[in-house]
Amino acid sequence: MEELERQRDLKETYKARLESTQEYLRFCLEVAQEHGFLHLITDGAPPPPQESPHGDAEAEPATTVDSNDSDEDDPAEAPPCDDPYLAATRDLAVQHGWSVVLDEIELHEVIGRGTTADIHWATWRGLDVAVKWVRPEFFRSNPGGEAFFAQEADVLSRQRHPHVLRLVGACLRPPDSCFLVTELLSGATLGEWLHGGRERRPRESSPPPPPLVDRVSRALEIALAMRHLHAQTPRVVHRDLKPSNVLLDADLRARVTDFGHARFLPDGKEALTGETDTTRSQCINVHLRSPRTYVYMAPEVIRCEPYTEKCDVYSFGIMLNELMTAEHPYIETNYGPSKIALNVANGTLRPKLPERDVYPTGLTDLICRTWDAEPSSRPSFATITLALREIKQQIVQHTEYKKHSNYA
């Protein structure tokens, strides 16, 4: 009976997605016909090559790594590459000194596994680092895999922020030698820190959550990172913000990671379209292999509609609520991921909110604003960071007041 119910949920979800996709495709065909490029679609012309929106000359090194003079670092000696974005990113890595030679890396134990890559503890030039090694089968099974990997390396190489994971270097030689070298953190994700382990379980069977002020502090750090990404030109849209993509360092400070699904949003461009984004369409099975991603995905993205950086605000709102309640989103419903996605998309479902009389004034209202059905009504991360700072100050003052009252 459970399997039949699951199949019914899947059928209902796929039917709704198909209808939404058909409507959008009809709209695209009408626009193409109106503007005179319908033949480019019907003739099956390939899409233009993806390029870095910054231009080659503007990229900067991710670290002060000296480039290696071996033949392996010479772009002319690189293995054949069909994707121009990957080739350009590899050239930039060599030019700006963050290209890593395979022989320099000494891999140790695996400390994490994702849908496309393994995370190793490793040694590079005497330093302990983390290596995100993309599995060769990812490139063999995804025609857009090279651009997908190049995008992550390109985005991450440009970040300089205390709450964004720091890139040390990269090796961009698919399919066998594609990996990112980053700073090595404690290894704990935000979800593991909050819930006390990897298992998804009810609060009554979990250890007590961290203190409220610490949970708000982690939320503020994530918001600061996202404010930095959205303030860039062009803006960086993360598109996969969730607890497993936030790591903590030894001092429990947050780092936003995993920019594999990130996209640039240039000035003057108001929205991206999920299903017409070439790289995302080619790599959509990555999301499908990770059902929990849909729990944090904005409804407009689930519906395959145009979206802006406000999709990150929605994802953050789900995380913020999870941090406050210390409960996994929708755990009280016992819904499967497909049913959650369908109900979120049609606006009938959001996670259970924290109790208003337990938490600081304005917190519940802030959460509700971040996951508003209308993206334009969601606050910016500049507004969110200001609100979270005030909320944190309220908590600190309340804690000090209770301490003095108890002492008296």
TrEMBL record:
Keyword Metal-binding (UniProt): no
Domain called Protein kinase: residue spans: 105-401
Binding site for ATP: 132
Leader sequence residues: none
Pfam families listed in its UniProt record: PK_Tyr_Ser-Thr
SMART domains to which the protein is assigned, alphabetical: S_TKc
Domain of life: Eukaryota
Keywords: ATP-binding, Kinase, Nucleotide-binding, Serine/threonine-protein kinase, Transferase
GO molecular function: ATP binding; protein serine/threonine kinase activity
Segments passing through the bilayer: none
Region (Disordered): 39-84
Entry similarity comment: Belongs to the protein kinase superfamily.
PANTHER family: OS09G0443600 PROTEIN, SERINE/THREONINE-PROTEIN KINASE TNNI3K-RELATED
Protein's recorded name: Protein kinase domain-containing protein
UniProt organism field: Miscanthus lutarioriparius
Species classification: Eukaryota, Viridiplantae, Streptophyta, Embryophyta, Tracheophyta
